[in-house]
Amino acid sequence: MTVKAKTRHTVKQKFFTVFATVGLVVATMQPTFAAIEIDEADFGPSYGTMVADTIVGKPLQLVNAVAGTAAYLVSLPFSLIGGNADQAQQKLFVEPWDAMGRCLGCTVAEDNYYKSQVIDNNTVRIIVDQPSEILINTNDYVIVTP
Fold first, then answer.
1. 130 CB-contact burial (10 Å; exposed 0-12 / middle 13-18 / buried 19+)
2. Would you say 92 and 75 are in contact if contact means Cβ atoms under 8 Å apart?
3. Label partner for 29 (CA 20 to 30 A): which of 50, 87, 101, 130?
4. 41-46 — which CB contacts under 8 Å span 24+ positions?
5. What are the residues whose beta carbons fall under 8 Å from the beta carbon of 64, sequence distance 6 or more?
6. How big is the chain by its Cα radius of gyration, in Å?
7. What is the 3-state secondary structure (H, E, C) of the chain?
8. How far apart are CA 144 and CA 134, in angstroms?
9. Please, are residues 74 and 66 in contact by the beta-carbon 8 Å criterion?
10. pTM for the complete prediction?
11. Digit-coded pLDDT (tens) for 55-74
């Protein structure tokens, strides 16, 4: 009888070992499946996202901006009393109207990328290590000593 008990214990132990090993392998492989390569040719808005943004997105953003402006004006006396008028202005007025300025069909990341590509003669761009870079606004006083 003791032989059967040891056999059962051994089978349970082997099953647990195999189960734990498979679980560990699956858990360590998960980050490799999460990596995504970005094809720069496909970067940017598509025809479908532009059409959807034109028909649905921009009108809803306009409604949101007008409603946010109205909510800001109604809440202004209360936010002045509470001391958070600047925060209310940012969330209810500035951000909705800034969203209207986003490029047609773009996500926030795409819009930020396109706006960062605009050449500004007052900014010097130093690329340190791809994709890291240092931006220096030449309107400020910058002294570089070798």
1. exposed
2. yes
3. 130
4. 43/110, 43/113, 44/106, 44/110, 44/114, 45/103, 45/104, 45/105, 45/106, 45/110, 46/105
5. 96, 99
6. 28
7. CHHHHHHHHHHHHHHHHHHHHHHHHHHHHHHHHHCCCCCHHHCCCCHHHHHHHHHHHHHHHHHHHHHHHHHHHHHHHHHHHHCCHHHHHHHHHHHHHHHHCCCCCCCHHHHHHHHHCCCCCCEEEEEEECCEEEEEECCCCCCCCC
8. 14
9. no
10. 0.52
11. 999 999 999 999 999 999 99
Amino acid at 32: T
**Using CA atoms, how far apart are residues 73 and 79, in angstroms rounded to an integer?**
10
